[in-house]
Amino acid sequence: MTELGNEGNFKPKSSPEERGGEVIVGQDTWAEISAAKGESKTIATFDLLDCEAVSIIIEGTDGVRTAYIQDYSPDKNLESVDVLAKNLERLKLIPKTTVTVGIMIPELVYFEDETVQSLTNKCLLAFAPDVVIEVFSYKATEYGDGYDQGSLMIELGHDGQNNLGIKGLPDHIAELGHKSA
């Protein structure tokens, strides 16, 4: 299952794109994928350039793994928290064993930032006590082609392993990003 979305005034500059189990999430939008054991899927966002991103990995009691990524620009912070809150209401209903949340912020945004605190609190309320939340900071300087800066990727492996990557994207994902730009 793959859900791609935006709602209300949270209008994406680019829509999520799916190809063969790989989803690229553009600015100001979100996407969700699910994979059963034996399936492999990837979801990613990159080139954040002062944007923030939230990733959620849910290990379901039925063995299905769900991954969610939301990317949003600084001028959409309040709207993005509202969109995340709506999606959390749905995601928290999934029978789960564990939840891992990753929040990526530019280096100049402090961990005590109001938006970061709001995101953290909403995730805690939705998933406690089975949640681990990690906040990552990335260098907010533009350089290169953007794939090595502000990239967030979740791989749901066919072996049941989940990988959260916070640096450069594999070449085949980067190529997909170029095609969706």
Describe the fold and architecture.
With about 180 residues, the protein is α+β, with helices and mostly antiparallel strands. About 20% of the residues lie in helices and about 35% in strands. The chain has 3 helices and 11 strands, in the order E-E-E-E-E-E-E-H-E-H-E-E-E-H. It has helices at about 75-90, 115-125, 170-180, and strands at about 1-5, 15-20, 20-25, 30-35, 40-45, 50-60, 65-70, 95-105, 130-140, 150-155, 160-165. The strands form 2 sheets. It has a 6-stranded mixed beta sheet, with helices on one face. Helix 2 (about 115-125) links the parallel strand 8 and strand 9 (about 130-140). Helix 1 packs parallel to helix 2. The longest helix is centred in the middle third of the chain and has 15 residues, at about 75-90. The protein is globular and about 40 Å long. Residues about 5-15 and about 170-180 have low confidence and may be disordered.
Q: How many angstroms separate the termini?
A: 23 Å
Instruction: Give the strand order, joined by hyphens, for the main sheet.
Output: 1-4-7-6-8-9
Stretches where pLDDT falls below 50 for ≥5 residues?
A: 6-14, 168-181
Radius of gyration computed on alpha carbons: 15 Å
Which key phrases capture this entry?
181 residues, alpha+beta, six-stranded mixed sheet, 11 strands, disordered C terminus
